[in-house]
Design goal:
Elements (H helix, E strand, L loop, with lengths): L1 H23 L11 H35 L1 H20 L12 H7 L8 H16 L3 H22 L5 H20 L10
C-alpha cells in the first residue's frame, strides 16, 4: 500500500515537472524530433544568441582597450578641456573651490544674486571687459555692446531653446552698465546713420 501511494505520488510529480517544462518551452531534444517551424525557431534563436555573444565580445574588447591605455587621446582631450576651463576660471578671477567638488548648496551660493557667478558680479565682469577694452572710444564701445549681444544670440542658438532666466537678467544688466558708461562719456547710443 505504501508502495502504491509512493508510485502514485511519483507519477503525479513527474507529470507535473513535464507539464512545467512544456509550459516554459523546454524541450527534451533526446526523445522528440524537432522539425519545421520549431526547427526554424531554434535556428533563429541560436543565430540571435551568437550575434548577442559577438556584440558582448566587441564591447568587452573596447572596454579592455579603453582601460589598457588606447584611450590616451580621450584622456588627453579631457585633460586639455579641463585645463582650458581652469584657465578660464582663473582669467575671470574665480579662486574658489573646484567646480566639480562643490556641494549643491555651494553651487547655489555661487549663482545667487551676490554670488561670483550671480547676475551682479557676472554682468559687471562682462561690462568691465567691454569698457576696459574700449575706454571712451564711441566706436569700440558700440562694437563691444554689439559683440556681447551677438555672443548672447549665438549662445541661444547653440542652446537650442530659451536660455535660463538668469542669462537674460545678466545680459540685460550688462547692457545697462555699458550704456550707462556710454552716456557718462557722451557717446550717442542711438544710431542716426540709418
Amino acid at each position: 500500500m505504501n508502495i502504491g501511494l509512493n508510485t502514485h505520488m511519483s507519477d503525479a510529480l513527474f507529470s507535473n515537472v513535464e507539464q512545467k517544462k512544456e509550459n516554459l518551452g523546454i524541450k527534451n531534444l533526446y526523445t522528440k524530433k524537432v522539425e519545421g517551424d520549431e526547427l526554424k525557431a531554434l535556428k533563429d534563436q541560436v543565430k540571435q544568441n551568437s550575434q548577442a555573444f559577438s556584440l558582448n565580445i566587441e564591447i568587452i574588447q573596447v572596454d579592455i582597450s579603453f582601460k589598457s591605455g588606447e584611450s590616451e587621446n580621450v584622456n588627453s582631450d579631457f585633460e586639455k578641456n579641463y585645463q582650458e576651463f581652469q584657465d578660464f576660471l582663473d582669467n575671470i578671477g574665480y579662486k574658489g573651490k573646484a567646480i566639480a567638488d562643490l556641494s549643491q548648496d555651494e553651487a547655489k551660493e555661487l549663482v545667487s544674486d551676490d554670488g561670483f557667478f550671480g547676475i551682479d558680479q557676472t554682468s559687471q565682469r562682462i561690462a568691465d571687459f567691454v569698457i576696459q577694452g574700449a575706454g571712451d572710444d564711441a566706436d569700440l564701445l558700440k562694437a563691444g555692446l554689439d559683440g556681447i549681444l551677438q555672443g548672447f544670440n549665438e549662445a541661444e542658438e547653440i542652446w537650442g531653446s530659451k536660455l535660463p532666466d538668469i542669462s537674460y537678467k545678466t545680459i540685460d544688466k550688462a547692457k545697462d552698465l555699458i550704456t550707462k558708461h556710454m552716456n557718462e562719456v557722451g557717446v550717442n547710443i542711438l544710431d542716426t546713420s540709418a
